[in-house]
# Entry
Amino acid sequence: MGIEISRLRRQFGAFVALDDVSLKIGDGEFVAVLGPSGSGKTSLLRILAGLDQPDAGSVFRDDHDLLALDARRRGVGLVFQHYALFPHMTVAQNVAFGLRVRPWRLRPRASAIKASVEGLLRQVELEGFADRYPAQLSGGQRQRVALARALAIEPRLLLLDEPFGALDAQVRVTLRGWLREFHRSLGITTLFVTHDQDEALEMADRVVVMNRGRIDQVGTPEQIYRQPATPFASRFIARGQTLPAQVKGQQLHLFGHVWHIESFAGDDAHEITVHVRPEDIVLAPLSGDALKAQLLNLRHVAGTVRASLRVESLDDPLEAEWSERDWARHGAPSGDAIGVHLQALTVFAMDREGRVQSRATVHPPHAGFPIAVGPWRRVEA
Ligand SMILES: Nc1ncnc2c1ncn2[C@@H]1O[C@H](COP(=O)(O)OP(=O)(O)OP(=O)(O)O)[C@@H](O)[C@H]1O
# Structure
């Protein structure tokens, strides 16, 4: 049971905003839809909310056709980044709105509406704010009122479109934890749209990665981070960076060395892409087996050290990330040459249409780079 989205397509003129999108959402699940601007996230939400209709495809909830229902009868609560509160209404009036506009037969009594609003304001921790107007609230408080307003109709599905998008970084982080706890206690099926990787990975049970109207990958935050299914997912989620590698048969050519890769189906590939993540570029003594890099730009950010590295034969610098502890142990002043090892690489083989045919995450058999030519241990495919 839950929501089953099948083969949704939405086109605006010649532009395809949603292309064959299929997704199952379990009851009570918290799913984040993550993708860059224009990837189709809002288009998907609008269709689920009943604000738009797809050109093709279906959405079923517990075997009922959701698309056949009028927006007001879908039991959907909406919170948008710019879904402003009614400025001329108090907080209590805003929260009560969804109940007050119900047809009279379905409308609760005034006393029940009052009790419900009080309960909701308690839940979103805004007791005592009932008589204020939106202009008298902070951005974070306004979004909590918007959430209370969405919850007032007791939705079966909560759709949140960048709800914290307009808030400053610190408030965002606080509200993330708060919303997660809130979801845990209420268990409402929730779809949360964001273009912020941290937000999606930190909050969601599962993450849907969208790219140009298509779903590239669906998985737990850990799965998507560890095993990105496409070069896009790797770049967007795991900050994967392209290395100038080539694969011929079972041999991978990288930085002037030739490596053997086992069981990688890249023979017929139109294109091979090899990625490395910043944290897989580890510091090493500047000796024979390390890759030599020039330190261009060093930043200390919240307990981590980030650096741009100039590596011979690469046009763009590589971004690396270490802990302060590792940096203190191995560090060198900016401008110096340092040694690094590449601990893990993800190799993608693509066909002519850009579809991934084969993927492997490979680790050199020991930390050293480059190592003696030999088989790399393939840990997953
Ligand atoms: N009514 C419309 N008419 C024409 N094009 C549209 C319409 N609505 C959306 N689009 C286009 O469809 C694409 C997807 O838009 P959508 O709003 O779903 O993206 P998004 O992933 O939510 O982006 P953002 O993070 O910027 O909100 C965009 O290129 C957008 O310009």
About this structure: The radius of gyration is 25 Å.
